[in-house]
């Protein structure tokens, strides 16, 4: 499967190293869409990929699937065009807090018969939530995220501080680089307005910790993950990058486990 990536930051580098410099069967990154080729010219030689700044050229470069690893604005600007030609994996899931965009991209995906994949990113438990919500009988979903203070605020603090408390819809507005997880959780369950979020800046930790609580007719579930950060961008958890690789492998296989 030939892959094109949008973005050349921390997640893209993880994927380039894993996929193009190790053996992941027939996965191969061929093309990278960037805003500025000069900034990333070493990426082309180091990973044997071609850089593109023109979307039409990028999409016709022999790729089968596009992975977005850029940001929310890139999803809004590029995915409506990409989905008319290719399957797409989106990691800046926060873009889908905009329900108009979800409707538009969903309509185009149907019309052109391409798929949108939203990896679980830095969290887990989405299988439980979606199954539990199949009858619409989930009553409560919350996410409590604790990150190193420097990932969330610029001021120096001595003690852990709640920097946001409210609904997922507002969490992603306030923290677009840190709260994509709240939106994938909301999409899998009871929505942007009902998914409760607490975000804590903690000067004493070096992991990105997400704690999910779900209550419904099925019973109750809790889930905590203590993520190691990606060294190139500590705001981003290692597992978020890995979840894209996992998604690509599952797309390329015929046996689907869980879900
Ligand atoms: N769903 C989840 O659980 C998670 C999602 N994320 C999200 O994943 C995304 C990527 O994360 P990460 O790799 O750490 O971020 P980085 O900041 O390290 O990299 C982002 C890259 O995207 C590029 N970029 C931005 N806009 C465009 C565009 N319009 N076209 C092409 N390239 C573009 C940037 O280029 P330049 O430097 O030139 O601006 C940069 O190379 C972020 O949105 C992040 O919030 C992260 C963690 C978890
Ligand atoms: O990587 C993480 O731990 C979560 C994150 O940044 C996001 O959801 O935007």
Automatic annotation (TrEMBL):
Annotated Pfam families: Asp_DH_C (PF01958), NAD_binding_3 (PF03447)
Instruction: Give the protein name, as stated in the record.
Output: L-aspartate dehydrogenase
Q: Per the UniProt entry, what species is this protein from, by scientific name? A: Solibacillus faecavium
Q: Name the NCBIfam families for this protein.
A: NAD_NadX, PRK13303.1-3, PRK13303.1-4
Q: What gene makes this protein?
A: nadX
Annotated ranges, domain Aspartate/homoserine dehydrogenase NAD-binding: 7-119
Task: Give the pathway listed in the UniProt entry for this protein.
Answer: Cofactor biosynthesis; NAD(+) biosynthesis; iminoaspartate from L-aspartate (dehydrogenase route): step 1/1
Which reaction(s) does its UniProt entry say it catalyses? Answer: L-aspartate + NADP(+) + H2O = oxaloacetate + NH4(+) + NADPH + H(+); L-aspartate + NAD(+) + H2O = oxaloacetate + NH4(+) + NADH + H(+)
Q: Indicate the residues that form the catalytic site.
A: 210
Entries under InterPro entries matching the protein: Asp/hSer_DH_NAD-bd, Asp_DH, Asp_DH_arc, Asp_DH_prok, L-Asp_DH, NAD(P)-bd_dom_sf
Supply the EC number(s): 1.4.1.21
Which HAMAP family does this one have? NadX
Q: What one GO molecular function would you report for this record?
A: aspartate dehydrogenase [NAD(P)+] activity
Q: Where does NAD(+) bind?
A: 122, 180
Q: What does this gene product do? A: Specifically catalyzes the NAD or NADP-dependent dehydrogenation of L-aspartate to iminoaspartate.
- The Aspartate dehydrogenase domain covers which part of the protein? 158-244
Q: Which family does it belong to?
A: Belongs to the L-aspartate dehydrogenase family.
**UniProt keyword list:** NAD, NADP, Oxidoreductase, Pyridine nucleotide biosynthesis
Q: Does the keyword Cell wall biogenesis/degradation apply?
A: no
Q: Which PANTHER family match?
A: ASPARTATE DEHYDROGENASE DOMAIN-CONTAINING PROTEIN, L-ASPARTATE DEHYDROGENASE-RELATED
The record makes one more remark, namely: The iminoaspartate product is unstable in aqueous solution and can decompose to oxaloacetate and ammonia.
């Amino acid at each position: 499967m030939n892959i094109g990536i949008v973005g050349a930051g921390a997640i893209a580098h993880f994927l380039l190293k894993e996929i193009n410099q190790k053996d992941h069967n027939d996965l191969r990154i061929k093309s990278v869409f960037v805003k500025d080729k000069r900034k990333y010219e070493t990426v082309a030689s180091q990973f044997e990929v071609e850089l593109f700044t023109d979307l039409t050229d990028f999409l016709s470069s022999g790729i089968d699937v596009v992975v977005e690893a850029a940001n929310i604005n890139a999803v809004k600007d590029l995915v409506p065009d990409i989905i008319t030609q290719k399957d797409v994996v989106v990691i800046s899931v926060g873009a889908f807090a905009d329900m108009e965009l979800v409707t538009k991209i969903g309509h185009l995906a149907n019309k052109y018969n391409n798929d949108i994949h939203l990896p679980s990113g830095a969290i887990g438990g989405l299988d439980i939530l979606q199954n539990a919500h199949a009858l619409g009988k989930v009553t409560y979903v919350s996410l409590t995220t604790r990150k190193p203070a420097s990932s969330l605020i610029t001021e120096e603090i001595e003690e852990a501080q709640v920097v946001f408390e409210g609904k997922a819809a507002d969490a992603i507005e306030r923290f677009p680089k840190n709260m994509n997880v709240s939106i994938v959780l909301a999409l899998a369950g009871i929505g942007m307005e009902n998914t409760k979020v607490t975000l804590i800046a903690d000067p004493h930790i070096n992991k990105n910790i997400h704690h999910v609580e779900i209550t419904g007719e099925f019973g109750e579930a809790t889930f905590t993950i203590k993520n190691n950060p990606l060294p190139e961008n500590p705001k981003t958890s290692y597992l978020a990058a890995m979840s894209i690789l996992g998604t690509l492998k599952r797309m390329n296989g015929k046996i689907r486990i869980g879900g």
